[in-house]
Amino acid sequence: MSKRVLIVDDALFMRTMLRDIFVEAGWQIVAEAENGEQAITEYHTHLPDLVSMDIVMPGLGGIDALKKILNNDPDARIVVCSALGQKNLILEAINAGAKDFIVKPFQSAQVLEVVERLIAK
Amino acid sequence: MKQLLPFKVGYETYALELVEVQEVVEDQMIHPFPGSPNVVAGAIGFHGRIVPVLDLARLLGFPTGKMGQRLIVLVNRRGPVALGVDQVRAIISVEINQTSQIDDDAERKYIHEVINWGGEMVSLFDLDQLQVNLESLCNQGGG
Amino acid sequence: MAASKFKEMFLTEAAEHLQKMVDILVQLDSDPEDREGIDALFREAHSIKGMAATMEHHQMAKLAHHLEDRLDDCRQLGRISGVEIDRLLDAADVLELLLDDIRNEQPERSVESFIATLPKTIEAEVDTGEGEKSVDLAVNGCGQLIELRLRETVAAPEARFLVLLKRLADFGTILESTPSADDLMQGGCSNQLLVRLDSDMAQDEIHRELLKYTELQEVSFPDNAEKEKAKRPEKGTKDKTVRVSTELLDHFINLTGELITNRNQLQNILKERNWKELEDGIGQLARLVKNLHHQVLQVRMVSLEGLAGRLSRTVHDLSRRHGKEIIFQVDGADIELDRAIVEELTAPLVHMVRNAVDHGIEQSGTISVKAWRERAQVLVQVADDGRGMDAEKIRQQALEKGLLNAVQAKTIRDYDLFQLICQPGFSTATGMGETSGRGVGMDVVKTAVEQVGGILLIDSIPGEGTKITLKLPLSLAIIRVLIVECDGTRMAMPITRVVQSVEIAPDEVQSSGKQLMVHYQDEMLPMLSLRKILKLPQGAPLDPIPLVITELMGRKVGLVVDRLVGQREVFVQRLPAPFDQIRGCSGGTILGDGEIVFLLDLQSLFERRREK
User: What mean pLDDT do residues C385-411 have?
Assistant: First the structure.
């Protein structure tokens, strides 16, 4: 059975790119969300194996969404995506419970390496 | 007792401690070099070494013109560099108590002490400050 | 008594023996039954033992002695296993650390516990000592030390370490770590993390889990004694001594003799005012000085052997780690270059080889490093027969990133196209690593090569592999330059940066929009004015127009100067700090008439212009 992922990013471009990467690697995209609120709803609807979460989004941001999700499901596997300049946000996200992180711009190999090793454990 | 070498740039008199000075040279051809920030006038050949020359008048914001008449070559510890000044005067000796520290936020840069030398104000040039500013100037690449 | 005057000599020689050991070990990996190799290895260990014992460096002598014993077993067996090679490589690393201790005049670290981690005899290697490992843990009692080192290119290292710390916490209890999680949250850390972990998991298992993180350059399990090392600053000062053959020394002595004769001759001429002979005497002096100069440069020359050893170690470690089968070939390691250039290029070459392993070779293949002389240049080539780079994909990327316009994208040659991967940031672009077959950092490589006055050429065919060639000057200090004149000032360009200097008639200049172009061989090159670049006043029209064909930002261009003065060999001085930071000028030289001619660094000048 293929692994199920929820993609959260406010930019259509980034979602498309992530979707391509995941689909190519045989993942199933359960849903896509473009802000934190949507992410929380979609998460609890689908309970995916993995969430790829953008940090900076309009409305409810990635870190807050992540905390809320973990509140209800402490085992949620969430990987945050962020630009290189936002080191402190990444640190904050990991401290808040993100399992790993991906720095934009990324290569598909990097993304897959991060998510596969997360799923493997 | 401190031995000082006073020199003039524009209408001000500055001084360096003699221990910082390697040599004073005159009438040296200054070769400009590509990419240098405008406070770097160029370089001279000094005992077979290439030594960059700073245009002090420009650095201190005085009208430039007579630059290049006298070059004060600093000791190598300062990484060979020469200061182009308008005029060099005779060495003077001062007691430490003749000097007075000046405020950090003073308007005139590159001075850390002022000496009253027989009624004339002589400003002690701050080489450390120069060093720091030079580094950022050279990193920007001037132009 | 260990006299200090022998210390330098000991350090240099021991380092050489150690390097040879590593070289042989890596070679043996592909031919484990090479008896001569094993014998040679035994001799190296023996030499190190002897030297260390003489100098009373007991720890080093003890470890070398232990290696000697193990190698003696290998000799009996007539072969050496892969596991044993890795152990011996580890041991070589410890010897290296001991050398550092000695160099820094610190007490030698203890090798007792390291030796204890090695199985007693090499036959025992079949079952990789589960039993011994647990004994080890029991001895240490309070958890095990794990040292992690990140690759330099890893983004957000603090965050990466934080993730790893959390991962390690899954395996057991973290007793302490440097830096701590709190330190990491504050930001600012080195690329090293030292963790003391209390865990029931076997070291092997933890190691295996950690290897899943390819962001890690190194995972090691130092023993307690070695923990000291992590606390100490990186490396001690490098050896600055060189070894000079007695033959060369004899030359110097002879030359000195001749110079004394010459001086006497000149003094006589002066005394007798015998001016007719003066010319003769000075001619003689010129010859001697030239000779002396040549010999001194000779002393600075080193071969590429050491570097080649380093590279083969890199390939060995990486291919083992990624499970790739790679044949590594070196050709021309005896070629000599100025040591400053070799030092400058070590990191870039390691990087290129690493790229070839990571991105070039898919499962198995060959990486070759070749060096050869071509006139006054040395060429160093790193080639792989891996997947190669796809020009189309690069073209597409360049177009998207705005590095090329549509017309350029159509007309650009593959050669120029590949140069684009050396643009900062280009290769890190989304998906590039996958499609182009080359990872990050080529911009850094190119910069390093250009800093020593060389150029970098890239050639690649999809499915057949990639070749990267460095063209380097033989020596950093003395280089051949082209002198040009511009607004009355003479300037020099390293000849390695000049494709050709030509004079063209004004009617050969064509205009394409705002840009003046010139036909050169079968290409149209943009013409740039050096006066304009240097912000000098415009000059009078020139006829013919002197042109220097050079390479700028990966493209050939025609640089218009006022006058081509000619070529000559010059001794280049760097400008003193901080003036060496000034972009546009990479040094200068004082000519015979006292004039200072500066070395033009067009590349950085041009980058500065573009940044504005």
Answer: 81
